[in-house]
Structure formats: C-alpha cells, structure tokens
Amino acid sequence: MNAENSPKRRKNISYAKWGYLFIAPFFISFIIFSLFPLLSTIYYSFFKYYRQGLKIIGPTFIGFENFSNLFRTDLLNYLGNTLIMWIIGFIPQITVALLLAAWFTNQRLHLRGQGFFKTVIYMPNLIMASAFAMLFFALFSDNGPVNGSLQALGILSQPFRFLASVTGTRGLICFMNFLMWFGNTTILLMAAIMGVDPGLYEAAEIDGATSNQMFWRITIPLIRPIMAYVLITSLIGGLQMFDVPQILTNGAGNPDRSATTMIMYLNNHMYSKNYGMAGAVSTVLFLICAILCFLVYFIMSGSNDSVKKERKGGVHK
Known about the structure:
Helices cover 73% and strands 4% of the residues. By secondary structure, the protein is mostly helical. It has two domains: 1-39, no CATH class; 73-316, Orthogonal Bundle (MetI-like fold). Strand 1 and strand 2 form a beta hairpin.
C-alpha cells in the first residue's frame, strides 16, 4: 500500500517554495535598502523639515510648496550643466568604444595581444573617481605639469587657468568621465558584436558588401539592445554625476557654478539638514531620470521593431 502511494506523493511535491526562498534575500534587501528609502524620500518632500542650529523645524506638511520653491531656484541651470557634461563625455565615449569593439572583433585584422589591450582600456574604470579627480587637479593646476610642459614647448606664454574657465572645467570633467568609462563600454559592445551570427557577414561579403555597409546594416541594428542598455546606464550615471566635479571644484562648482550638478545641489541641502528640499530635489531627479530612460527605451525598441518589419518585408518580397 505504501509502495503504491509513494509515486503519487512524489508527483504532488511542490518545489515552488524553494524558488521563493532563494529569491527572498534579494527582495528583502531591495525593500529595506532601496524601496523604503525611496518612499520615505518622496514622503518627506511634502514636508517642511530642516534643522536651524540646534532646533529641528517640522516635519510639517506643506504639500507642493517645496517643489514650487525648488523651481524658483537655479535647478534648471544645474540640470543643464549635468546634461551638457554628460553629453560631451558620452559622445566620444560611445564613438571610441564602437571603433575599438569593431577592430577587436574583426577577424580580418587578427589583432594580437587583445587580452592586454582589453585590460589596459579597462584599467581606468578600476581607479576611484576621487583619486582620478585629485590627479587631474594636480596635473592641470596653474603651476602643474601640463602648463609647465606647454610653456616649455612655447605653446603658451603664461599658464592657462583650466579650473578658472567654464570650458576648461567642464572639459576636464568630461575627459575624466570618458577615460573612466570608455573601457567598460568597449567590453560590453565587444560582447554584443561577438554574439552576432558570423554567417550574416559571410553572406553579405559574398553579395559584395563593403566593411562599412556590413557595420551599419548588420552590426549596428543587431547590437541595438546592448546600445540601449549602454545609453540608459550611462544616462543614469550622468544624472548622478557627483564625485569628479565635487572634488575637482572643491564642492563649489565654479566658475560661476557652471560645474554644479544636480547631485551636488542635493548634497548642499543634505549638508544643511534641509530634508524637505533634499527630498524634493531627489524626487524631481528620479522623475527626470525615469522619463528620459523610458524615452530612450521606447525609441530604441521602436527602431528595433522597424528593422524587424523591414526584414520580414524583404523576405516576403
């Protein structure tokens, strides 16, 4: 009797609880360290809650007053600074990364020492941004090695104050972000290109397609999902830009606050213990980031759908 019933009992055993058990640590960590702080930040953005000396004012519910006060400040200027520095740094980053990824994965070139080059281009990503900023602060200071070399070569008659000009400060921040992240982008794009079916390139080569045509007609459309991932993660990181401009400008964002980012502005409110305004800044930044990321995602996914329709149309024809 027991022997007959044992197979039925085994069939009724459910292993779903083990799946829930294994994924529970992630959801518990997410709720404690991400979801709860996010909800509390949004909650306190509707309150007057700050410290004045030793006295704590609030929390007092004031509705959307923090948001209305926020948009009367230079918030949009700081958002513009952040987007400008991200765009200037991202365009050369994605361009150089695409070029290197295409070279490293090109079977015709047979480049040697690829492992060495991959390690070298990825190395800046391992260096702390604070150390990178301190290095550039020393290199490009008024009496630093860069100015000394340019004067010795006769290019400059007097030191150029990189950190006293808007172009120089923003240029250094963009250059540092480019150096730190182009290696990581290159590795991701290389992985995407290596996932493309080699038979497509062979068929295109037989049909007489050039290297440029294969790159733009085959490689780019097929790696568009990874391109979307790179763009979205870079956009999120760009909107959260803080450590490099904070250290390079000593927290002031000078000259004329042209290097002040959204997170630096948020940090000022956190430092002054104005939790209500800090919550409002965080909420606005979250909404801007979410909207831009959704726009990028839908634009990229829409272009993917158009490519698929063109292929199907070509096949039916």
